[in-house]
Amino acid sequence: MYFLERRFSMEHKTGLEDYYIIKNNKKLRFGYTTGTCAAAAAKGAAEMLLGGGEIREIPLMTPKGILLNLELLDIQREDNAVSCAVRKDAGDDPDTTDGLLIYARVEKLDTEHWKKQRDSLVKKNRSEKNHSSCLKDDTEISEIAPQIVLEGGVGVGRVTKRGLSQKIGEAAINPVPKAMILKAAEETVDKYHYEGQMKITISVPEGEKIAQKTFNPRLGIQGGISILGTSGIVEPMSETALIESIRVEMSQKRAEGMEYLLVTPGNYGADYLREHMDLPFEKNIKCSNYVGETIDMAVNMGAKGILFVAHIGKFVKVASGIMNTHSHSADARMETLCANAVRAGGSLACAKEILNCNTTDEALAVLKKHRILEETMKHLMDRIQFYLNHRSYQQILLGAVVFSNEFGYLGQTASAAELIEKLQGTQDE
To answer: How far apart (Å, rounded) are the C-alpha atoms in residues 121 and 250?
Structure first.
């Protein structure tokens, strides 16, 4: 939920000054996406190219329905082109692209050549309208001979693997930002009745360096960042954005032919997988705290199974049916360990000791002291398996390998061995 304060001020800034969310009793301000920056820069450059003069800010309506007024920076003029930049502002979201300059260069192309190409295609289409033809309507003609050509320049990544919104070789400009950029340019073309062709090149000078801190290398996007954003607006610490990044990575793995997915909630799981398990580490997907959502997406994508490799600090919660393992959503670590210790024959004294523990490693030490660690883990794995199956309604094969940094391997669920075998069979593929 977000709130909107209405304050009247003589100074108008971006349009987001009064948008915020409250988390942990703090106001966290909204920001805007790289897609919004690219669209605003393209609109500003097109306006200056076709209208002449120089402008320092540009209005842009976002898909979220929030009107922004963004500053145009580093304006450069050439004989037949204009470029400018908009600085990315992620608000209070911890975004690696915050502060980057997103550039758009808008260039007039050979108008006569384009008109001849377009007219030729229209004529051909009309002459063949009663016959089988690859050109069925004006939409297909516009795709072949578009008035506005959009390209990715320096610092915008290129797609090298299947499973993403773009084809291999295309610039990593996602569908919504692409539509925003083209719409902004088209509005300007219509405003000035421009009948020629133009090319828009989006670039991010620092993009290649920053991309190393993102998921892009894992996704097969090389050479820069992606131009992203489905709403045009960045909501701080957005769960939706995190889940979407998981979905994209899963989609890519499925496109590569992976029927059985290898998932780690975080860095601990990834490190354990790399150091202690004979499985294709490069194929693992990080799901953060979103165990339930990951299962749901896998089912919808037609995956056959998931093996989770997880630290007990997170995955013990799954044994109580908690599918979002973030501490703000639920905890119940000690309660879950205590219940399964009792199932394993633990005494009342043992149960009380566990409930007084602060960490799972501390609780494991208590179980070891009372000589019921192994038996408790067996019961815990049974409960984890039960709730994993329950989440998917047994539509896919699910299992988990659980470990502790201090105690190492703790156990695995009933389906884990089969999943490990399936995944080992993919290592040479």
So the answer is: 40
Task: Give the other-Cβ count within 10 Å of 339's Cβ.
Answer: 20
Domains and CATH numbers, the chain: 32-234 (3.30.2110.10), 246-424 (no CATH)
How many Å apart are CA 354 and CA 381, to the nearest integer?
Answer: 18
Take residue 350 and report the two structure tokens written for it: 């043992």
AA identity, residue 233: I
Token code pair at residue 242: 């995190």
Alpha helices (H) along 24-94: 34-51
What pLDDT does residue 320 have? 97
Q: Which 3-state string (H, E, C) describes 204-252?
A: CCCHHHHHCCCCHHHHCEECEECECCCCCEECCCCHHHHHHHHHHHHHH
Distances (CA, A) of 399 to 233, 261, 323: 37, 11, 14
161 vs 221: CA distance, rounded Å: 7
Nearest CA to 294 out of 228, 242, 336 is that of 242
Closest CA to 337 of 370, 291, 289: 370
Q: 283-340 pLDDT, tens per residue? A: 999 999 999 999 999 999 999 999 999 999 999 999 999 999 987 788 899 999 999 9
Query: Residue 422's CB: how many other CB atoms inside 10 A?
Result: 16
Q: What is the pTM for the complete model shown?
A: 0.68
377 vs 81: CA distance, rounded Å? 67
Quick one: tokens of 332?
A: 């119940």
